[in-house]
Amino acid sequence: MNRNLFSRSMAAVLGLALLVAAGALQAEPIGESKPFAEKFLLLQLSDGEEKKQDKVLSVAANLLEYYGPDIIDIEITTFGPGVRLMYADNSRRERISSLMAQGVRFSVCMNTINTIERDTGTRPDLHPESIPVDVGVAHILDEVEAGYVLVRP
Question: Which of 43, 15, 25 is nearest to 107 (CA)?
């Protein structure tokens, strides 16, 4: 009988510990732009294909619709061929601007832009509201370390 009581007591203590730990894992605001956000998502785009561009924009739009723009904090980070999404003349400019109006941030790897300029002699014009980051992959690592979940659609 003492064993049964001990087992129940230990199960109760472990259950309580799990509840306390789960409470500690609640999402806390990471950025100031979305103080009530509960979900923090970083979408990676390193592919220049139009289908991939459409997919990453659709994922962002679908999640905004599902959670609501105040509950989810979304950033799309582009590097390598993925920076083409942020070219000023990209045919998806209106979709990008619509997502930006709902709080989605778009960062662009300036290391890639500098390489394009060095290789072609021309610096591409970027969407005026894109956020330059020195090194896209390093930015991704920093954001993941800060608590963002990385998804590569």
Answer: 43
| Closest C-alpha among 125, 71, 79 to residue 106 | 79
139 φ/ψ angles, rounded to the nearest 5 degrees: -60, -45
**Fold assignment, 28-151:** Hypothetical Protein Ychn; Chain: A, (3.40.1260)
Cα–Cα distance for residue pair 25/124, rounded to 1 Å: 42
- Say whether pTM exceeds 0.85: no
Average pLDDT over residues 43-66: 97
Give the CB-side neighbour count of residue 37, counting CA atoms within 13 A: 22
CA atoms within 13 A on the CB side of 152: 10
